[in-house]
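Lab meeting, item 3. Inverse folding demo.
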């Protein structure tokens, strides 16, 4: 009498290895997302606001940057150090101080960044217009 062995294939699937991988990926993404620090300027874009704003007492200060990299502070030619001194002086005199940066179309980027850095360090509200 021949006995046949029953060869039955199990149709069960083990989920333990899959859940381990999913938990490892979840932990990885949670750790890496908390370490990501954006390296960007905090800019306020123009738009409508629900707050009412008062008109400033003083007109905003203008800093123009030409394509050769020369600065003009309120229409007068100036250097970066004199602009910084003037901004520091105006910031101490006025409670609210704003500045408009007007770069030329071909102005050196480092000159524009230098002026925006001065505004950032002295906590001046600076607005940069489109290059002309």
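The presenter then showed the designed sequence:
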């Amino acid at each position: 009498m021949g006995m046949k062995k029953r060869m039955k294939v199990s149709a069960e699937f083990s989920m333990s290895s899959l859940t381990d991988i999913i938990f490892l990926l979840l932990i990885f993404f949670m750790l890496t997302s908390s370490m990501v620090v954006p390296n960007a300027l905090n800019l306020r874009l123009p738009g409508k606001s629900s707050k009412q704003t008062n008109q400033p007492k003083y007109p905003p200060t203008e800093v123009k940057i030409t394509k050769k990299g020369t600065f003009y502070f309120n229409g007068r030619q100036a250097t970066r150090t004199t602009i910084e001194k003037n901004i520091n002086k105006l910031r101490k005199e006025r409670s609210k101080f704003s500045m408009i940066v007007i770069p030329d179309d071909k102005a050196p980027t480092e000159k524009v960044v230098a002026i925006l850095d001065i505004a950032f360090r002295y906590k001046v509200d600076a607005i940069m217009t489109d290059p002309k």
